[in-house]
Amino acid sequence: MRVVKEQSDQEKGFTAQDFTICEATAQMLKRTHKDGVSTVFERAAEMKPCPIGSASACCKNCSMGPCRLNAKDPYSKRGVCGATIDTIQARNFARMVAGGASAHADHGLEMLDIFRDVVNGKIKDYQIKDPIKLIEVAKSIDIETEGRSIEEIAKDLYEELKKTFTQIEGEIPFVKRVPEATREIWRKLGIVPRGAMREIMETMHRTHIGVDQHYENIALQFSRCALADGWGGSMVATEISDILYGTPSPVLANVNMGVLKEDYVNIIIHGHEPNLFESMLASVNDSALIEAAKEAGAKGINIAGMCCSGAEILSRHGISHAGNFLSTEYVLATGAVDAMGVDVQCIMQGLSTVAKCYNTFLFTTNPRAKIEGAEYIELDEHNPRKCTDEIVMRAIARFKNRNVKVEIPQIVNPGIHGFSYEYIKYMLGGTFRASYKPLNENIINGKIRGLAGVVGCTNPRVKHDYIHVELVKELIKNDVLVLQTGCSQIALAKAGLLVPEAAHLAGDGLAEVCEAVGMPPVLGLGSCVDNSRILIAASEVVKTGGLGNSLADLPLAGAAPEWMSEKAISIGQYFVASGIYTVFGVTFPAMKGTKFYDLLFGGLEKMGLGYWGFAEDPYEMAKLMIAHIDKKRKALGIDKARERVLFDMAVRRELEAI
Question: Would you kindly state where each structural domain of the chain is located, as residue ranges?
Answer without folding.
Answer: 58-245, 257-400, 413-636
